[in-house]
């Protein structure tokens, strides 16, 4: 990356960004000028990570890892808390054969099998272009299980506001065809609740004789666990810091025809939108959104349809993120309708950063 400054006064403007992130030491930066505001990109050190790229505009900042990945470790308002959860004990670990959680947003492959847990412990290639960063991992052939797959994340930050577009791309570098679905997992900090929308409810009738959607359960899914709240319009799952039911973990998945999932915590609302593909064959009996929690964090997950990749072919999956602050707290579905839904409806997969 190179410095792209046309006027000396720009240096003063950059100063507040370079030192905004506590604990980071900036070693390299550039500016992508996109009209109304600027996206600042800089290479920093963060905790025990040596190769981290910080993206920031006037509202939000992201930290993306290059030591390992592809992975987005942080997303939040500039200089404020991380909305994602970080596993501090895994910071700086790289190159070994064990899967490390790390935290943040990661890229997996569904269905969940042994190959899903191929460790993203190796340095990624980084390419920047305007207000986007592309992280490309090595082909998964260094350790067992060898998958022959190659993952990349293309992360685009809007020039102003909180909108982030995350394009997940997976390529089959092996010689054999394989069936899979790209899977995006955002590991959210504890203390909040995830919200998924159910399809609209209607009385039985000639147009409503067949099932509308699915709710997939795992062996450890227990709806008597107080972390679940199943309503007429929404599914909610709470991210508690302690175990509250028979099982430590809870998981469930649905086909959300509305194409969104959200996480609310202490006045902040994280929203991800994904364009659903009606009639497509999705993993896990037809899920395009899934929730997982255990004490200390919650995963808000989206999935693409299953596809058969021939040698050299790729599949893509796009998430659009937004972050809102000052959101009034509530507890029932009327609160979701009044407060959450209007914000969600302002986030669309057709909006470009």
Architecture overview:
The protein is mainly beta. It has a single domain (10-344), classed as Beta-galactosidase, Chain A, domain 5 (Distorted Sandwich), CATH 2.70.98.10. It is 6% helix and 41% strand. The protein has 2 helices and 22 strands. The strands form 2 sheets. Strands 1, 2, 3, 4, 5, 6, 11, 13, 16, 19, 20 and 21 form a 12-stranded antiparallel beta sheet that branches. The chain has a 10-stranded antiparallel beta sheet with strand order 7-8-9-10-22-18-17-12-15-14, covered by helices on one side. A hairpin with a 5-residue loop joins strand 4 and strand 5. The chain is globular. The two termini are 21 Å apart.
> Class in CATH?
Mainly Beta
Order of helices and strands: HEEEEEEEEEEEEEEEEEEEEEEH
| CATH fold-level label | Beta-galactosidase, Chain A, domain 5
Averaged pLDDT: 89
**Approximate helicity band:** under 10%
Radius of gyration: 20 Å
Instruction: Count the beta strands.
Output: 22
Task: Outline the low-pLDDT stretches.
Answer: 1-36, 348-352
Keywords for this structure?
22 strands; ten-stranded antiparallel sheet; twelve-stranded antiparallel sheet
Short description:
By secondary structure, this protein is mainly beta. It has helices spanning 10-18, 333-344, and strands at residues 25-33, 38-46, 49-56, 60-65, 71-77, 105-110, 125-129, 132-136, 149-157, 164-172, 178-188, 193-197, 215-217, 228-230, 234-238, 250-254, 260-265, 268-273, 289-294, 297-303, 307-309, 314-324.
């Amino acid at each position: 990356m190179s410095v792209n400054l046309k006027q000396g006064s720009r240096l003063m403007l950059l100063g507040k960004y370079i030192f905004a992130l506590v604990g980071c030491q900036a070693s390299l930066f550039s500016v992508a000028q996109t009209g109304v505001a600027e996206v600042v990109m800089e290479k920093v050190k963060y905790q025990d990570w040596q190769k981290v790229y910080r993206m920031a505009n006037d509202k939000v900042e992201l930290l993306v890892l290059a030591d390992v990945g592809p992975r987005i470790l942080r997303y939040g308002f500039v200089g404020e808390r991380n909305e994602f959860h970080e596993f501090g004990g895994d910071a700086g670990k790289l190159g070994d054969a064990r899967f490390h959680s790390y935290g943040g947003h990661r890229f997996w492959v569904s269905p969940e099998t042994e190959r899903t847990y191929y460790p993203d412990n190796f340095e990624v290639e980084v390419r920047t272009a305007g207000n986007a960063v592309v992280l490309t991992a090595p082909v998964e052939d260094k350790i067992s299980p060898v998958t022959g797959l190659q993952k990349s994340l293309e992360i685009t930050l809007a020039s102003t506001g909180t909108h982030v577009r995350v394009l997940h791309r997976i390529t089959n570098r092996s010689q054999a065809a394989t069936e899979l679905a790209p899977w995006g997992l955002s590991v959210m900090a504890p203390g909040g609740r995830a919200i998924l929308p159910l399809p609209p409810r209607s009385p039985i009738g000639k147009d409503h004789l067949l099932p509308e959607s699915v709710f997939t359960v795992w062996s450890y899914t227990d709806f008597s666990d107080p972390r679940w709240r199943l309503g007429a319009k929404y599914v909610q799952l709470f991210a508690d810091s302690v175990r509250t039911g028979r099982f430590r973990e809870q998981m469930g998945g649905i086909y959300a025809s509305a194409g969104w999932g959200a996480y609310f915590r202490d006045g902040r609302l994280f929203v991800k939108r994904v364009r659903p593909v009606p009639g497509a064959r999705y993993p896990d009996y037809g899920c395009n959104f899934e929730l997982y929690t255990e004490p200390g964090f919650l995963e808000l997950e989206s999935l693409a349809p299953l596809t058969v990749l021939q040698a050299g072919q790729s599949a893509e999956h796009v998430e659009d993120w937004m972050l809102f602050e000052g959101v009034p707290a509530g507890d029932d579905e009327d609160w979701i309708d009044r407060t959450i839904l209007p914000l969600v409806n302002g986030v669309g997969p057709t909006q470009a950063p």
